[in-house]
Amino acid sequence: MPNPPDVVLWSIPAFVLLTVLEMVSYRLHPDEDAAGYEAKDAATSVGMGLGSLAFDALWKIPVVALYTAVYELTPLRVPVLWWTVPLMLLVQDFLYYWQHRGHHVVRLLWACHVVHHSSRRFNLTTALRQPWTGATSWPFYLPMIALGVHPAALAFCSSVNLVYQFWIHTERVGRLPRPFEYLFNTPSHHRVHHASQGGYLDRNFGGVLIVWDRAFGSWAGETERPVYGLTKNIETYNPLRVATHEYAAIARDLRAASGWRERAGRLFRGPGWQPAPPPERKPVPTAAVPTAAVLATPVPGTPVPATPVPAAAGPAVPGPVAAAPAAESAA
Fold this sequence. Notes:
- With 331 residues, the protein is mostly helical.
- The protein is 47% helix and 0% strand.
- The chain is built from twelve helices and no strands.
- The radius of gyration is 40 Å and the shape is globular.
- The termini are far apart.
């Protein structure tokens, strides 16, 4: 296996030049509707990019060891030739689509990828805002290794994919010719991907090609101006907090979870998943009781008044007789 060139390293001068040109363009031709640049935000993005280089060097040690073991065990071999390299790039881009989509729909994976979406700006420095826990991507590319692709060839394909995506992080490029927009990922498509509006969420996962999104129902065109960032933004420029804030949120949710089913949902369901609320208890209906019966029912502890007994029927009893006048004494 020949040593492929380090595409990312060779592209650094182009990264710097394009970023400077974009900054100058905002100075000369400001756009009030565009997010543009903000010094603290750009510095955080650059810091996240530098940190990712250091952490990726550590994560690659066990990943390369695993890839090498799988490559040695498989009997298949894909030679590196002029016609096999485009095929490897195509397969890697297809697997990147599913890796990217998986990092949006599984919260544990989203905790890694959310870093890239945490900026409310959209410029070329946003492309540098990379996670420090990139070890969550390697399982998606194991099929290429199992099919006989050398780990170094896979690294080359991944680097090409990453470098391509640098230039699409900009608001200074509008829509490109329709055939290009139909086949390839463009700034217009990627602006939708970084937007936080409901209709734009979880759309346009492609790396180099956008045809995967068109084929699997995740494509959306740019119609309204995107609002960048998260549905619940973080108020920090601290790179360490940017890199770990979603892991901290997951830990809080796991501590507050009521059971293992909810804990599993907090880890493996979507970022916005919430457990179903407990069913409401309906009041037990009380049988209707006639009012007269209620009134006739004695209350315990209350004396019952005597019921008058009606007089028996019979002859009328005369009333008292008036006293006769006193007899006059005889003369």
